[in-house]
């Protein structure tokens, strides 16, 4: 039994740097709400009694809800519990989709074919679930003709309207005009 205690303190010392799970002697509360190894609620018991029950079952006492009053502790195999937690985190990480922002650059005097090529690229980005930032930089006297930029942006938005919607309308920011497109929700 001494070897079991030694193993638990080694595991917890390594683990607690990451997730701060309290096990066995690390639990500092006087009373805990105890759930036994079968999942049955034992009620509120003293920490000494809970530790004795865990030792009797040759398992660990794990504080699964430290913010509750009194803390909720469960008698279980800590190694198995930690493995299950890591598996859940890995699955959650695998199933999440990170949305990237791709940028397409236009100019005020862009030709129609060039707009079509860039719209095709933007459509592909939107189909993949990414957002698209469309930027248009005005050089020199082009800045006096911002209406051409607004027209180019509107035309571009119409070309990709099958796959995306305007999230942020075209807006001047210094010498640049920016517009953001988001993928349509019903892209099936």
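^ Assign residues to that structure.
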């Amino acid at each position: 039994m001494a070897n079991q205690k030694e193993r638990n303190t080694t595991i917890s010392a390594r683990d607690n740097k990451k997730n701060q799970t309290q096990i066995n002697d690390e639990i500092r509360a006087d009373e805990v709400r105890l759930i036994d190894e079968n999942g049955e609620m034992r009620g509120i018991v003293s920490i000494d009694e809970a530790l004795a029950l865990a030792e009797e079952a040759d398992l660990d006492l794990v504080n699964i809800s430290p913010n509750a009053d009194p803390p909720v502790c469960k008698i279980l195999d800590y190694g198995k519990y930690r493995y299950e937690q890591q598996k859940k985190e890995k699955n959650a990480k695998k199933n999440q989709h990170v949305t990237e922002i791709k940028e397409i650059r236009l100019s005020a005097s862009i030709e129609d074919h060039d707009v079509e090529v860039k719209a095709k690229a933007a459509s592909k980005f939107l189909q993949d679930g990414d957002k698209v930032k469309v930027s248009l930089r005005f050089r020199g006297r082009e800045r006096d003709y911002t209406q051409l930029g607004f027209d180019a942006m509107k035309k571009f938005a119409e070309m990709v309207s099958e796959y995306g919607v305007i999230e942020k309308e075209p807006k001047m920011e210094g010498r640049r005009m920016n517009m953001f497109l988001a993928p349509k929700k019903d892209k099936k």
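The mean pLDDT is 82.
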